[in-house]
């Protein structure tokens, strides 16, 4: 592991960082690419705080994380939709601060989240969804070990166009290899 990666860690997300995350999302298109239909534009801190309530349930379905580099937040992601009965969850709302992209931080964060999902939560399956046009995210997920499951055609309307959506997943046995 490089010195840069050694200076980074995935930690539980703190609400005081919401403003920082929102500053990385400049438009409705950015928001949809990042979070699908979770939020309504304009994205507010209130919406984000509401969304995070699922992390405080007696049996949480959401685990929000910050990627920190020497204490400074540079990324955010979630394990969401935790279904205890099926040992499955989703990797969601993955984002790296604009100025830190294309430096392998995304791949590092995804791998750390997988460690939590399979190692700590004991999951059998971790899924995700990503829009077809999002080449950097798809490459990042493939590099981390996710495999393609299929395409949902023209599921959201952004401006005048409809976006296709890919489903990907990784199973425990694939993560263990
Ligand atoms: C998707 C995202 C998290 C990736 O993070 P990142 O730190 O830039 O990704 P990495 O540097 O770890 O790159 C992973 C791979 O993707 C490649 N990649 C990065 N940007 C790319 C681009 N624009 N086009 C093609 N490949 C790209 C990298 O080269 C790397 O592949 P490699 O190991 O073969 O070199 C980041 O771009 C982001 O925050 N995007 C906005 C929010 C978003 O779309 N989130 C995904 C929601 S599903």
From TrEMBL:
SUPFAM superfamilies, per the entry: Acyl-CoA N-acyltransferases (Nat)
Coiled coil: none
A GO MF label: acyltransferase activity, transferring groups other than amino-acyl groups
Gene3D superfamilies (alphabetical): 3.40.630.30
Residue span(s) of domain N-acetyltransferase: 16-169
Name of the protein this chain belongs to: Transposase
